[in-house]
Design goal:
It is a single chain. By secondary structure, the chain is mainly α. It is built from 9 helices and 2 strands, in the order αααααααβααβ. A two-stranded antiparallel ribbon has the order 1-2. The longest helix has 21 residues. The radius of gyration is 19 Å and the shape is elongated. 24% of the residues are buried.
Length: 187
Amino acid sequence: MKESRKTRYTKMALQNSLFELMEKKPIAKITIKELCENADINRTTFYAHYTDQYDLLAKIEDETLSWAKEAIANFSDKTDKHENIKLLEGIFQYFVDNSKNLKILMSERGDINFQKQVFTIIYKQCGITFSSTVDISPGIRDEYFVFVVNGSIGLLQHWLKNGMNRSAREMAEIIYNMAYQSGGQRV
């Protein structure tokens, strides 16, 4: 069922309000009252769409993950380095185009589990895993993957904080090359 223009506007206003407030403080300190006042939306309208501020954030994160999965699904060749870098470049360009909101989602104020999901999806599509041919003890392969994902999150946060001082292409190449230098292998 298609949403009405009024519903889309209301959701957008609440999302923007949440991002504005999250720039100043953690989500746990944001009240529904101030979220609604900032969006110029009444509380009844808020509760018609969301249960609380965490539900609003979860729905925003779900939309972003859906976009990432859809964008990544268009790339089928997991073994070609240039295709994988092109995929990563597209994702970083999405971050550039939506930097205001994604800067919050990917910051320390954002949900670390969401951030890990984003990079896990990306790396699995790129075929980055840690195979038995790499000199990594079998008992810690998962830890290496976690290390690369968390390092990528930190690098992305650093890039966003520094005003995206490198191009999307440069960031794609840096992330890709670092993932492989850390012991990553294509499947």
